[in-house]
Amino acid sequence: RKEVEQDPGPFNVPEGATVAFNCTYSNSASQSFFWYRQDCRKEPKLLMSVYSSGNEDGRFTAQLNRASQYISLLIRDSKLSDSATYLCVVSPPGYSTLTFGKGTMLLVSP
Amino acid sequence: GAVVSQHPSWVICKSGTSVKIECRSLDFQATTMFWYRQFPKQSLMLMATSNEGSKATYEQGVEKDKFLINHASLTLSTLTVTSAHPEDSSFYICSASIRSQIGETQYFGPGTRLLVL
Hints:
Order of helices and strands of chain B: EEEEEEEEEEE
Number of strands of chain A: 11
Number of helices of chain A: 0
Helix content of chain A: under 10%
Structural class of chain B: mainly beta
Shape of chain A: globular
Distance between the termini of chain B: 37 Å
Oligomer: heterodimer
Largest sheet of chain B: 7 strands, mixed
Strand content of chain A: over 45%
Radius of gyration of chain B: 14 Å
Shape of chain B: globular
Order of helices and strands of chain A: EEEEEEEEEEE
Helix content of chain B: under 10%
């Protein structure tokens, strides 16, 4: 089983749609969780950290289910500029290393 | 926010050439710097973790003699791909981490595209 698995995508949605990304991780001791965004041929950029209680940042909502080892990202009212690859990222306890999922590509069309 | 730069942004070289990539944290001192590699349509793979003044820790399968890492200061780390071959062509990305009360956050450089002919 891969350490971090994501929906393969791509997701093609119209502007204004709501889209959800799912991610599972294999290391139950993982401590930190993030969603990064990577535009084509660019470096990843931190979108948001994911907390146990769930957290929201504008149109973006992240959820964490430790029991199921599952992380989600919900994007509401999709914009054209949301088109990118979304990376689920997990970090084990006590270490600063990050393990990246393969990413899910989102294409928002007019 | 924290800014990390990389230089050069792209390199085209002949097989057998050594290529040096610099990673700098511009407005902060990084606790640790990391080097990643990303092949097309693949996830970022950690190559090595580097702390200032000490030897880098390489991930399994990454040859330390081929990918030389020097971390001379809290704001500069370099990766040298020695005797590069076409299979080393990839997107090399560094990151620098900052430790804070809420944990450790990595900030990524813009990456270096290496093409070995």
